[in-house]
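I'll show a record.
***
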Amino acid sequence: MVGANNIGPALADPVAAPASAGEAVQRLIDLSRQSEQLNQQALNAQADLDTKVAAAKDADSKAAAAATTLDAARSEIRRYQPVIDRAANSALLGSRTNRLTSLLVSSSPQQLLDQMSIVDLVGTRTNDQLSQYQKVSSAASAAEAAARTAADVARAASAQADAVRTDLESKRAALQGSMAGVIAAWGQLSANDRSALAGSMFPPGFDKDSLLRGLVPGSGTSALAAGLTRIGAPYVWGAVGPEQFDCSGLVQWAFHQVGKNVPRTSQQQAGYGTPVDQKDLQPGDVVFFYSDISHVGIYAGNGLMLHASTFGVPVQVAPMGSSPFHSARRF
């Protein structure tokens, strides 16, 4: 997987005139490959940014809730504070009424009983209030610690989002420069070279009807069938259909048609579904290419795949062998 700060290989000079038609085509292929890598990196950075922004919003919400809890706890302390202050003053001055005082000032047994009941009631209430005060004090301390932690998490999440946002801007700038190089190289090709590069929509002998016979709704084969309806659609960096696509956009769109919410980028898609060995591939399986998993297609049987390959080449069925195989998944 390409690192977060790696924005691809150095770009070839698209301005210098190629020495031959073959060199012109190869230059376009090389530049397009670099652009495809940058495109997927930019998409990954965008997905990372979306995750970081969501985390920052969640952290902000938790920090606000923690602050509200802290305010409520402090209000509770203020409510009990007068009682605690009176109890403290009473204890300090030695004026707290007790059973001995009641006995000394009582003029009758009944008055003694009445005064002792009042003393017990006052003592019980004071103890209850002290107990409640201790509870709200503990709650306030815990709320204050939670609020500090939540605020720290929120600040860290915001900083991470800002860092990823900067990285995304860098990748987008690199992609824009690379795209300009591809388009310039394309402009140097002759009409015949462009036609040869685009190739045919299907390889010789490809039988779509036999391939799709008996397909199961919602399966990979039905996603392949949906993708095959986009044959001839142009490749456009960052496009997700339905009229134009990049490689991972085509896969996402095809599976969305059969009710599966597949991730956006080729690297994310490589972790979706279940792994499949290359020798066990079935039509509809998703195949990945290059060590950085920067290209993806849908297996179409007999060593072929449906894919959106590169600028100037429309969505088509082509041999898998033209790109180094990485892995496969069954969605």
